[in-house]
């Protein structure tokens, strides 16, 4: 990416250029005329913008002026006119008549060819087809002196680029001796790329370089709003279509190589409401109705965003949140914008008078001009027309970032060198350094542990627009050891000897360096454990420790205060202060041991099993509730007896046995299983309740955590894929991890058993086997609609089955069983069973009308679901002997009161297209 002096690159010598950094000279007048979409021009010839009627051939167009600010050429993307409003030769058909344009053209002075210009223009033949945009970007060349000064389009429709979301942006360099054009390409639909990429084309005295520089660093789904800064060293654009890359970006642009670097991702969507200052330092944007300024010199997104300053707040129009549009830099060095005067409702022109100044010193101004229409549009120009020129050139500088260095955490070192030549300097990344924009800066190494880490810092020097050089320095940050922890006695008797202190986290076996105040180390300096002889009474004594690693980096020093006094502050016992009664045996408690001390333990509510006299004991707790544990310490030295008593440790012994009864289980209308239970001690957030369900058919067991309030009822969703009777229990886990299981209950599941009869449904169900010793009766409930009203169709049933005969006109039926436990006074509902009866018509081919009660009539099954217009029966002579119209009445076989055995023919007419023919036989 960067070509540095260490790489011996960019040794191009000293360039004499006309750019600088400290006082503004705006001498480029090529953008003095702005053609607006209301038939007027915004003209900057006088030094102040003037609205003047435009007498040309189009309302809105791109323009370019000569070096004195006089209109030279203008184009609407279809034609090119000269200053006399004549179409130049070959300039009348830039694109086909049926095509259209999305972005208006750019005019560029042709490098090193006086009187020649380049036009960048587009043609769109369709919007989007097959994931591809139908736009193409071309360039042509214009000789304004040709044809006796009329001008001529010499070359045209030279292909540059196609299939893009947004139009290009162009910047000029080194007095417009070359240009860079930036544009995206819609490549996220190409499988091997899967992202849009940004293309950079260089244009110089040889024309267009057809080999672009391509940047595919971001995951771009779509992009737009491309805008170069006036110096061309920064680029703004918007990104969408990728959650990891979406946002707005300001990046640095290497105008020597065509590469992007230092991506600053922003979160607000600024769209076209942004602009750079003439010196390219400041970035302005409207956020709703607030005009903000950011310092674009910062290369990190965090510092860039933190530099945001509000310079103007506009009141928004009624019902809107936005006010302030089309920030646009002009040739007078000021930034102009449109806004609505909410008092008058007029659309006006405002400006930033001194955009190179920081904060409100930039002086925003309102009411510069008033527009006659609302939606005024400003044209676009090559950004280099607006850059700040410098009164004196800057000689090319090759920066010196200094030698590579190594640092320990907390060290401060110097990068770069003093007294480097005048230039615009920038350090990046901005981590750990103090001066970002000077040739020399300090770096303060942050805390760092474990392994060495090498960071590269780059120093950039540039004049802003013509030369650009880099140098790099590598800084190796050595780690320091993590602080060591100290354990031991913090209250000791005067002149006590050989008291132990130690560190327990020296995982890398560094050699500790121990320090002591108020005593002396008598053994094992340099190890993880030492012994100290303490001296006379001292409230400010301490033990300290640090370590040094192989890189010479020293850890932070850890201090451990020690109180030397005859009145010992004995440590409160350490150990569990809350126990379940089942875990209250053989419990260990301890404090730090001090050499020479004797410890007497008292357990109120318990007994000391072993360890009495030492710093560590084992206790049996004997009673539930609040108990206490106290330790007394005695230390005897040569001439002193010291004593101390600890604060009591309150130990709660918990008896958390729980009884829980499962009272009933029952399906509700949504086929969820509801449970009713009772427990006197069950408490939310203290106990954990589970539902245990075992499928009686598959044996599959399921456990469901109950997260709702423990109010005596809950429910769960049984598996509809394997619905079967389930044995259900409740399980409770108490604070001690003990488990308590309720009594079981069983759900009642109703099913349909297959029968050979079309209009019959045999309902069968299981009984709750845990009610086998109780008197239980069943009820059958029915509805013919899923959300219909239920009605009881049978009751007082002791069996586990019920025959239902479908005599109505509905094919779909729903059933539930209600089990009533007469002894316990509770009821349990079954699931909802859906039964669908067959509706196929079955026409008998024989019947026997002999009054034996079986098959006595010609009964057509299910004909009530397909009401015929008529049913007609004929004898073998074709004589009609029976007919039924409308609702079918089964034929009893008689004709004129007599029954004659034989075969007959029938015709059943449902409608004109559906007629059934057949024969039926009467047997006697």
TrEMBL record:
Domain of life, per lineage: Bacteria
Keywords: Signal
Coiled coil: none
InterPro entries per record: PKD_6, Quino_amine_DH_bsu, T9SS_type_B
Domain PKD-like: from-to ranges: 574-624
Signal peptide start and end residues: 1-27
Any matching Pfam family: CHU_C
NCBIfam families: Bac_Flav_CTERM
Protein name: Gliding motility-associated C-terminal domain-containing protein
